[in-house]
Amino acid sequence: MEKQYVSAAPAPECLPAHLGIIMDGNGRWAEKKGLPRSAGHTAGAAVFKKITRYASSIGIRYLTVYAFSTENWSRPQEEVGALMILFKKYLQDSLRDFRNDDIKVRFIGDTSKFSPDLKKLIEETREVCKDRTGMVLNIAMNYGGRAEIVNAVHEIAENVQKGMLIPEEIDEKLISSYMDTAGQPDPDLIIRPSGEHRISNFLLWQSAYTEYVTMDILWPDFVPGNLNWALQEYVHRNRRFGGV
Ligand code: FPP
């Protein structure tokens, strides 16, 4: 198997402005080691922190990580519970640890469905980070690309009904401004480790022209050198945005 590892990151001017990561393979990593799936999420969460700080250090401006999808609620209660505990721990940690990196943490998805204490932590994180000017980190929690589009359509329809918008004003730019990522560039690159080649409802509207790089490695084994490899792959892609 190819090593998918490069020791240095590409030059900052070649980097994607917005990088997305589907942090996949935690469960399989744990099962391979004879551990409960939750142990894979614990290992994956530590990698999340490390890769986030590394991405910020090399000059990525926007990073979106897929932490919990609208479909993940259907997992066994024990696994969902373990993930909620991890979210709390890592949000608490990131309030402290991301400060020196000036990382601005944001959330995309419907966070209203989480427990009161997790919602409080999410609000606190938003508040603490609001004036930061470094890399924007979007944590996708209870996120689904289709749900995001449905919400946008509802809001647009309501605004038309209220007379604040006329249907002729609805174009791609306007729809983008109703997405959870409003004001941010569309992702240039999405990385999916774990050998899967699916989109899994991640940033559906925003990824019309995104480059995809899938990798064989499982997320808990992912190290900065693997990110460098994916970034090198991206640098060599010829992006045509539908042109020639
Ligand atoms: C997918 O692997 C991963 C998840 C559903 C959870 C990802 C969450 C973290 C890494 C925690 C990050 C923490 C914060 C605060 C953002 P999987 O369980 O689907 O793996 P499998 O495909 O091998 O079963």
Brief characterization of the structure:
By secondary structure, this protein is of the alpha/beta class. The chain has helices spanning 26-32, 37-58, 77-97, 116-129, 145-161, 172-177, 224-235, and strands at residues 18-22, 62-69, 104-108, 136-143, 189-192, 211-214.
What does this entry look like structurally?
With about 240 residues, the protein is of the alpha/beta class. The protein has one domain (about 15-145, about 185-235): Decaprenyl diphosphate synthase-like (Undecaprenyl pyrophosphate synthetase, 3-Layer(aba) Sandwich). The protein is about 40% helix and about 15% strand. It contains seven helices and six strands, in the order βααβαβαβααββα. β3 (about 105-110), α4 and β4 (about 135-145) form a beta-alpha-beta unit. α2 packs parallel to α3 (about 75-95). The two termini are about 35 Å apart.
Strand order of the largest sheet: 3-4-2-1-5-6
**SSE topology string:** EHHEHEHEHHEEH
What is the molecular shape? globular
Q: Extract low-pLDDT stretches.
A: none
- Provide a count of the helices: 7
Strand-helix topology:
Layout: E1 18-22, H1 26-32, H2 37-58, E2 62-69, H3 77-97, E3 104-108, H4 116-129, E4 136-143, H5 145-161, H6 172-177, E5 189-192, E6 211-214, H7 224-235
Helix pairs in contact: 1-2, 2-3, 3-4
This protein binds farnesyl diphosphate.
The site of farnesyl diphosphate has 20 residues, from helix 1, helix 2, strand 2 and helix 3.
List keywords for this structure.
244 residues, alpha/beta, Undecaprenyl pyrophosphate synthetase, six-stranded parallel β-sheet, 7 helices, 6 strands, binds farnesyl diphosphate
